[in-house]
């Protein structure tokens, strides 16, 4: 079940596609695809329904956007991906227009994800360093919704140039799907891929590091409160609280939920980086000649990257006490009613 061809010489032309797979391998991929897409859709839908009834605060809208990304991804990528797996099994090529559309969806969703991670980090950074700026952008639901809309619209706009062949950038075929092309020697494609990576991944890394840094510094700078007898008497009016609070979470107000948003976004971002680096290295460095690559290696990386939607709900439950409480209250309510 390997596509390594024996007895060829380096001077032979490289075939465009690997050898057709066995039927069992094709069906295994299609079954795995169906399981990943359906489970990702159902699990994230349940999580978003249960938690949306319990949380009414603006910080939770950032977590909610992660769930929406996973739901949309399971809907818009499953069909073309299955068609690509079937075409690969016959040694056929995907229609170029379908490949571009599929690459556009992948690119847009990845950009929205990275922008949401960056926005979560910015939220935490402002919460600690500039409460007034945080109140301006992240306590008003219409403003947060406007930020979400801007992210989705901007991601689609940024992913649109490769839709027009011969302009800037391209989407290359990659194991039943399409993604940013890293074809060596193709300057327009490489320049767009590098630009897109820098403009999306760069700010996300910078703001995440900033958010973690200011949070750690703030935590280390907290000292025990002095006793009332040791405090100097002052006739000046007291300053308002240094950070805004908001009713909406069960135990810790906005501060706790804001921290949990940072935990979740960092965990998802770390998983994304791990799988994205792996799949990009495989695509750009290893797949130079299909005859030298065991297709199972590519399939594993592809399915791992696409199955992030299955891992994310576990992050919500493991890293957020508020979400665990929401599920516990929902379960208790159902038990009492039965």
UniProtKB/TrEMBL annotation:
It is found in: Membrane. It is a multi-pass membrane protein. Keywords: G-protein coupled receptor, Membrane, Receptor, Transducer, Transmembrane, Transmembrane helix. One of its GO terms (molecular function) is G protein-coupled receptor activity. Residues 40-316 form the G-protein coupled receptors family 1 profile domain. It holds the Pfam family 7tm_1. InterPro entries: GPCR_opsins, GPCR_Rhodpsn, GPCR_Rhodpsn_7TM. Its main location: membrane. One of its GO terms (cellular component) is membrane. The keyword Signal does not apply. The chain crosses the membrane at residues 26-50, 62-83, 103-122, 143-163, 194-217, 261-279, 299-319. The keyword NADP does not apply. This is G-protein coupled receptors family 1 profile domain-containing protein.
